[in-house]
Protein 1
Amino acid sequence: MQKDTQIFDLIHQELGRQRSGLELIASENFTSLQSIQAMGSVLTNKYAEGYPGHRYYAGCEIVDQVEQLAIDRLKAIFNIEFANVQPHSGAQANAAVALAVLNPGDKILGLDLSMGGHLTHGSAVNYSGKIYEPHFYGVKKETGYVDYEQMESQAQAVKPKMIICGASAYSRDWDYKRIREIADSVGAIVMADIAHPAGLIAKQLLNDPFDYCHIVTSTTHKTLRGPRGGIIMMRKDFENPWGVKDNKGNLKTMSSMINLAVFPGIQGGPLEHVIAGKAVAFGEVLSDDYTEYALQIQKNAQELAKLLVAKDYNIISGGTDNHLVLIDLRNKNISGKKAEQALVKAEITCNKNMVPFDDKSAFITSGVRIGVPAVTTRGLKEKDMQFIVDSFDKIIRNPEDENVIAGIKGDVNAFMKDFPLYPELG
Ligand SMILES: Cc1ncc(COP(=O)(O)O)c(C=O)c1O
């Protein structure tokens, strides 16, 4: 059989790009080679609709063990009773929870997309804003921190069925206890979407959402450093409060409603090869090496924030508790879009991002979001943040100077040579 050189040449080029550049996209990471190998395995051939021990296909004895290992490891990481590892992505995990909890037209309350929220938390262009009735809270203009008073007043006014906390571009920790109190006062369910900080929560470096939030979703590919995918978790299972019954007349548990919402609700056969990759990554998260990694993420992010502030960059909320910073570039007279385009020419990859109370559109934006999970996987430490900030700053000050950009690109490529990525791949 002829090798598909067109595709494998492109994969090789992408490996080169990942190796030579500074990867600062907050939602990206480099999963381990053994996780990649698990994904690129014969498990992709297997249909396994259903759950371990209860499948609609024959021949699932081995993939049952793979999926059960992923579930057991995930439960051990977060000290929880329930885990569904089948969602193909974070958006799928959130869609499954919505299908389990909500009826069309029900009200939801989430963080506004333009304040750092995610599309699946009620955006008008997403199923969550089309099928359900979305309402929003934001962050405080003066501090950049979540406005819990606004969350509370909105909850009282709207009486949502579900409150969603969690974000894509928010650098501070969450007060889950307070959110639960607000939810209880209006009889709402709380869903925490920890897609971004999950790896730090896994190592108790941030507040634990599980005691207060009924349902927790996450991606597996950001700080958790696994393959691209989603998960749904609960510390304690509970009977649904809406009186939904099974065919024997018993109240359904939330875990059964969530499992049914994932399959057959929104997905068909699970991606057992990806679930194997997740299991590998979860095993790594349980290791001491990963504890070191998570601690280093936080140290790097804090150092990065400090150095940026020293160069007069306006960081939303003034700093970070997690793995990212959101920078308002308005005092530097450059849009997020222009900054992103100039930076990528120097192989510094980060993304333009709206900042709270932005006066520019989502296509232009006033800010950029920078995260350190990927560079921390490469091995960069606090002392290396100075190189990142200096390189970033030179580009922001000279976005049209091709000589400056070429010089920085050379520096970046040379710098990253000291931090090998997938050396086994040659
Ligand atoms: C908070 C949050 N939730 C959900 C998602 C969706 O994840 P995915 O891209 O895997 O669907 C993201 C991705 O950026 C996210 O930041």
Protein 2
Amino acid sequence: MAGPERSENPLSESPRRELAPPVPAEGDGGVFSQSWFPVCLSADLKPGSVVGAGFLGGRVVAFRGEGGGPARVVSAYCVHLGADLSVGEVVGEQLRCRFHGWRYGGDGRCAATGIGDPVPSRARLFRFPTVERYGIVWAFNGEEPLFDLPDLPHPEDELVVR
Ligand code: FES
């Protein structure tokens, strides 16, 4: 009668030990780092255009005023009745909702309603801190950036961004 098989490697039968809880993946449980995240390519954000993008488990829009100034990133849904502002239009330096014409400035504040009613004092989109580097529009997950976008150890003209 044969006895129980023995392993060649005595360590293979040792119970696996966890030294620390596993680090959750970005977005697990709806939690994201306070860091910079890419939103869209700068080349896709022409002057006077708006681009919608998934962001941190939700949605944002990036827009650029008709004058070609800095990119802005704000929450995507109009505070009036919730229309997706990625189907809106840029008028001057403001983003206009297609549904009833509310307008938002680059700081996310509602600047005007569609029919000229007084603007509700708390009517504003969340404005994400935004920078453009390496051909990408980046937004920081937070009200103010906790650090600058890190430098890459390569000249920008040697980078290929897709
Ligand atoms: S839903 Fe945007 S103005 Fe009404």
